[in-house]
Write a structure and sequence with these properties.
Blueprint (H helix, E strand, L loop, with lengths): L11 H10 L12 E6 L5 E7 L6 E6 L9 H13 L2 E5 L20 H14 L3 E7 L1 H13 L9 E5 L5 H8 L2 H25 L6 H6 L3 H12 L5 H8 L12 E4 L22 E4 L20 H12 L5
Parallel strand pairs: 3-4, 3-5, 5-6, 6-7, 7-8
Antiparallel strand pairs: 1-2, 2-4
Helix pairs in contact: 3-4, 8-9
Length: about 325
Amino acid sequence: MNYVAPAWLPGGNLQTIWPALYARRGVGPPPQYRRERWTTPDDDFIDVDWLQTRPSDTLLVMFHGLEGSSASHYAEAFADFAQTRGFAFAVPHFRGCSGELNHGPRAYHSGDFEEVGWMLARFRQQHQGAILAVGISLGGNALLRWAEEMGEQAARVVDAVASVSSPLDLTASGRAIGRGFNRLVYTRRFLNTMKPKALRKLVQHPGLFNAEALRAARDLYAFDNVFTAPLHGFKSTEDYWSRASAKPHLRQIRIPALVVNARNDPFVPAWCLPHQRDVGNWVTLWQPVHGGHVGFPAGPIPGHVSAMPMAVGGWLASQIPTP
């Protein structure tokens, strides 16, 4: 990815925040999704938003990031890309992220490859053509964990996968987001939605966790220790971050996989990113100097966020086998 940030928007933080708030997401009106509700194997639900442009042999599935949704700036930009290519497009929401709290105690997490696997298997049952999958931030790490766990079997489900701005080393990213400016801005933003949702879940399931400990959490480490880790079978935050990270297992991937990380991402430090020698022949690394966290703005003020979806989507499409 030969990405160069516009001169008017320097630095990883501006390249993260401005695109999410002000940059254009596409060339037309916002996507008009059609929503489906799927019942999960444990009798809960997830909501899937669809954008069906015209009859297509290709489906692009996007897994959103932490507290994201089909309305996130990157989701609408990928929807715009799908429309330009005539692809069907779907955003399956992780539990609790579609605007309605799910029923069970389970939520979602960065290594949630079982949930990703169930979703992709459902898409494969419904769709006979090519399936491409992209995951953003948390969703990308979970998608890569699925590809790692599946090995050669992943090719029976999807043709190629990509991750964008994913925290492949969760310990490194967790520590980075808990410090300084990151703690004041990004951590606060995430906790402002995550803590109320968790407390609403406690009303559903009394005794699920310690409410006072959760209210006292001031960073993702503490939140994960009280909520995410114990609810999803991990002993602690350290255990969760270690076992859920995709970076140690990238050599196990056996389908075409693209891993995109800007080297100035505020909370995915460049020093923790994988090298080509770490990932094997199936994985392609794009690590541009600029871009921020899921930003990659382009063009004159106010800019747009189409450059990354066009590049990543184009790479994915190039992996579809020719008849």
